[in-house]
């Protein structure tokens, strides 16, 4: 078997495995992103309300689903920006290709325009292509890291805003309250984890943690 047939055979054997690894890597990155988004939002919410995350632990599925719901707007805007940029780039390249094929004079005008805009007109060497790729990769990694940190800060600030709305409702008239079996006062609903729920006691000005099995919730949404 010659070299070409050997490489083709290896491609047939490992092609599906490579695709599987790529898919698994994308799924792992997406899962990690959703986990970080949900954690950032919850951190801002808990920190503002003074809640203990150890007493209000969540399971993995709750964290991922919460991150997905909070990231819907980001996903929509990201898809829209990518669509606009791809459309602009494709239109520009097709337009240049069409004008170049129209004639020599048109091609010379495009070359002059590229020189005016300081866009390279000569084909880069292999060395230039390699180091330009390294530079683009470094810039892309830096921008991705900066964007990721900015998104986490945005989601954390959204958690802070949500907590401030809860504080305002406590001062005015709370939307949802609940009663715990072994606690006499009515509590303002703050948050529920896997095992425990947190409520605020306006009379004693303190946060109370109770098991989920010992509470009954009352909401004004059912009284409308």
Structure description:
By secondary structure, the protein is α+β, with helices and mostly antiparallel strands. Helices cover 66% and strands 12% of the residues. It has five helices and five strands. The chain has helices spanning 3-49, 60-70, 72-102, 104-116, 126-171; strands spanning 176-180, 187-192, 196-201, 206-211, 215-219. The chain has a five-stranded antiparallel sheet with strand order 4-3-2-1-5, with no helix packed on it. Strand 3 (196-201) and strand 4 form a beta hairpin. Helix 1 crosses helix 2 (60-70), helix 1 packs parallel to helix 5 and helix 3 packs across helix 4. The longest helix has 47 residues, at 3-49. The radius of gyration is 28 Å and the shape is elongated.
In helices, the fraction of residues equals 55-70%
Mean pLDDT: 80
How far is the N terminus from the C terminus? Answer: 79 Å
Number of E strands: 5
Question: What percentage of amino acids are in beta strands?
Answer: 5-15%
The number of helical segments is 5
**Low-pLDDT segments, ≥5 res:** none
What is the H-and-E element order?
A: HHHHHEEEEE
Throw out a few tags for this protein.
single chain, 224 residues, alpha+beta, 5-stranded antiparallel beta sheet, 5 helices, 12% strand, elongated
């Amino acid at each position: 078997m010659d070299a070409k047939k050997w490489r083709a055979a290896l491609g047939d054997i490992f092609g599906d495995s490579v695709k599987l690894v790529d898919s698994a890597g994308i799924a792992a990155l997406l899962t990690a992103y959703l986990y970080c988004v949900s954690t950032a939002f919850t951190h801002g919410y808990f920190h503002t309300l003074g809640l203990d995350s150890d007493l209000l632990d969540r399971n993995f599925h709750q964290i991922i689903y919460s991150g997905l719901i909070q990231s819907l707007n980001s996903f929509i805007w990201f898809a829209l920006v990518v669509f606009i940029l791809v459309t602009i780039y494709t239109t520009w390249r097709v337009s240049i290709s069409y004008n170049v094929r129209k004639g020599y004079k048109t091609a010379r005008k495009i070359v002059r325009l590229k020189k005016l805009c300081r866009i390279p007109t000569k084909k880069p060497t292999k060395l230039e292509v390699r180091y330009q790729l390294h530079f683009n990769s470094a810039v892309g990694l830096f921008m991705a890291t900066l964007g990721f940190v900015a998104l986490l800060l945005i989601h954390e600030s959204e958690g802070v805003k949500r907590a401030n709305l809860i504080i305002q409702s406590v001062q005015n008239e709370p939307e949802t309250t609940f009663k715990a079996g072994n606690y006499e006062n009515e509590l303002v609903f703050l948050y529920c984890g896997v095992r425990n729920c947190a409520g605020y006691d306006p009379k004693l000005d303190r946060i109370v943690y109770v098991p989920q099995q010992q509470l009954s919730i009352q909401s004004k949404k059912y009284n409308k």
